[in-house]
Amino acid sequence: MKMKIYVARRLGFALLSLIGLSILVFYLARVIPGDPVMMMVDPRTPPEKIEELRHALGLDQPLYLQYFFWLEDVFRGDLGFSVFTQRSVTRDVLDYLPVSLELVILAALMEVVGSFTLGVLAGAYAYKWPDNVVRVLSYIGISIPSFVWAIIFQLIFAWQLGLFPTGRLLDVSSPPRVTGFTSLDSLIAGRFDAFGDFIWHATLPALALCIGGMTQDARIIRSGMVENKDKEYIAMATSQGLPKRLVMFKYLLKPSIIPAVTVMGMDIAAMLGNAFLVERVFLWPGFSKHAIDAMLMKDLNTIVATVIVIGVIFAIVNIVTDIIVAYLDPRIRLMERGE
Amino acid sequence: MNKTKKIRLFRTIKQSPRWESVRRMWYKFSRSPLSIAGLVISAACIFIGVFAPYIVPYPEHGGYFSNYADKFIPPFQDLKYILGTDYYGRDVLTRTMLGFQYSLMMAGVVLSLVVAPGVILGLIAGYHNKTWIDMVIMRISDIFIAVPPLVLALGICSVLEPNVFNAMMAVSLMWWPWYARLTYNVSSAIRNEYFVQAAEVMGASTFHIIFREILPNCLGPILTKVTLDVGWVILIGSALSFVGLGAQAPTPDLGTMVADNFYTYGADFWWTSIFPALGIVVIILGFNLLGDGVRDMFTE
Q1: Distance CA A167, CA A281 (A)
Q2: In angstroms, rounded to a whole number, what is the distance separating the alpha carbons of residues A53 and A34?
Q3: A139/B147 Cβ within 8 A
Q4: Quick one: which of A328, B89, B190, B233 is 20 to 30 A from A125 by CA?
């Protein structure tokens, strides 16, 4: 199968699931909580006024037509009005989403770097003490969920030891807003103090987000390396007298990371969900924390928008992961060129 | 006479392949000390969950109870309250153990609701591989997998009233596709094996083929997933309670306890939130180790 066709197919399926998802959440948010008009108006409003409002909002139309009107608005970038913040949901998303994405991206970077370091160490020293340390870490990592890590980190490093700040993005004045991403904005403005301060604030939440996945991926890289160590091509490379480091990184590591990349992509996608809990623990003023606040206030438009927006990002992360795996795996690459 | 007896004895041993395979599976399971540890931890968790109301030191501390004279006793200082007490003077150990009950109930209800429908849909889709039936079932299950499970569960819970029952329903609604997926992958892979084709040629019914030919070959992965999922369902349930969209105070739910105590008195009275959190950790660890053991058991 050609790569382009493969990607197009993936995009098509992702779009299909997103439309299905939008139908599901639209139904949940419009039908289950009751009459949306009655929730907006004063209970003493005369019935004819209510009917007028219902007609003005298009809520007297059949449900499937309402869905299409809503979908049309979504494609125009209008996600509705938020009762919770008293402004458009689109504005809220644009304001809060970068703050969350920044945290997830930092966590993803930490996960990639950390799992490679730990995994290569464990693979290189298989069945010696570094391997055992990583094994124990992986059991700890899988059994402690990210929000418990968040609590432990905050208790120890922020509150008891006072090493890290919590609750805000920056302690210094914020850089002028260009992209909405604080780290990018501070680099654009040349404010390295703000950049450093941001990283300092983001370290604990990002670590809490990535630590579980990091230790799992390290184990996967390690087992890949141990498995491939006995392959003939490694024996050949070694017997040809290639330096040990070259064999390790060029011949052994490359085929061993492919399964880990798939899992890493899934972990990074799952971070979008875990961010909801971690941001709440650290009072990180991002999209997830905002969404939870809106959920507790039953702000239906924001709830629907949250699920859709996270769904879109989730689909993008998954497709990008597939493309990276296809690029890394020569079997997939060659299949594209050959047959 | 003597001879026939000997032959019969020989045959009875030989003729119980099922017992033999159970024995072999147990052997594979028991070879790993970690699997045994998982079995012991999960069994202990289930025991606590089932018998908590009868074995905890202060059963009345599960609900509205206050004894301000004993409030915020630190752990390991007073023998009466080994793990300390919270703001209302309630025993943290008692409440954590009672929390196991809610967590395991969550896992039990959710898994008993989702496993059968998910597996059956997966089998049907896998048997009718590459037809419109497969297409419809798998595309519908894709919808529920299009966002991280926690996000969809939060979304569903937030439009409903926040309570334990709705949290269970929300998690069940989005959990079945994982079973459909898993069963589909296994069953579509073996759908064209000779034994399935043989059954088809002999005129076996679709029901027979799906449940007697294909299903037994999917049992290993399904049982492994069920075991691992006990931990994950409990995690999602406590996450929902943690943000306030699941069980509400004073219910001794692990997630609710962690959140309430952490936000209000986290810094100074760490034991009120850390011990319930450790409860969640122990459950997940136990069922993960057990699940790994179950997986080893079914691999050749």
Answers
A1: 9
A2: 16
A3: no
A4: A328
Residue A61 has pLDDT above 70, yes or no: yes
Domain coordinates of chain A in residue numbers?
A: 90-298
**Beta A87-88 vs A81-82: how paired, if at all?**
antiparallel
- Is B3 part of any domain? no
The closest of B158, B178, B164 to B232, measured between CA atoms, is B178
Structure tokens belonging to residue B198: 């043989």
Q: CB of A185 within 8 A of CB of A175?
A: yes
- For chain B, percent of residues with pLDDT exceeding 90: 32
| Tens-digit pLDDT profile for residues A91-142 | 888 888 998 999 999 999 999 999 999 999 998 888 889 888 998 898 888 8
Q: Do A20 and B139 touch (CB under 8 A)?
A: yes
d(CA A327, CA B258): 44
CB nearest B266 (choices: A147, A155, A273): A155
As given in the structure block, the two tokens for residue A196 are: 């450093």
Residue B1, pLDDT > 50, answer no
**What's the mean pLDDT when you consider all of chain B?**
86
Contacts of B151 in chain A (CB under 8 A): 272-273, 276, 306-307, 310
Q: Which of A166, A165, A162, A182 is nearest to A174 (CA)?
A: A182
Rounded Cα distance between B68 and B71, Å, is 5
Residues B253-260, mean pLDDT to the nearest whole number: 86
Structural domain harbouring B171: 100-298
Asked if omega into B250 is within 30° of 0 (cis), the reply is: yes
Using CA atoms, how far apart are residues A17 and A38, in angstroms rounded to an integer? 32
A10-29 confidence digits (pLDDT tens):
888 889 999 999 998 888 88
Give CATH for domain A90-298: 1.10.3720.10
CATH number for position B258 = 1.10.3720.10
Three-state DSSP class for B138? Answer: helix
